[in-house]
Design goal:
Elements lengths: L2 H7 L6 H9 L3 E3 L2 E2 L11 E6 L2 E7 L15 E8 L7
Antiparallel strand pairs: 1-2, 1-3, 3-4, 4-5
Helix pairs in contact: 1-2
């Protein structure tokens, strides 16, 4: 399954064009390698996404072509979530 479709179906990112844009800017890593939106995702892959000042690491548990909102969280496990503070200038 394509990365952008996985992010949308799992509801990690709500819209596929947004997932594509984030991936194509190099802000997503799969197994510690920069991933494009067309990169294939497989069960067991580790995904790291940088959202501004937040970095989320996920493990892919399941692949589905479509899901209900309640079942979307079963597609991945959150491994870690870190917040970084930006330097403040006085």
């Amino acid at each position: 399954m394509r990365l952008d479709k996985f992010l949308k179906v799992s509801r990690i990112i709500k819209r596929r064009p947004v997932a594509k844009e984030i991936a194509d800017k190099g802000r997503i890593l799969i197994n510690d390698k920069v991933a494009k939106s067309s990169t294939d995702v497989a069960v067991g892959d580790k995904i790291e996404i940088r959202f501004g000042n937040r970095t989320v690491q996920l493990a892919v548990k399941n692949l589905r072509d479509s899901t209900k909102k309640e079942d979307a969280a079963e597609m991945y496990t959150t491994l870690s979530e870190e917040y970084t503070q930006k330097d403040k200038f006085i």
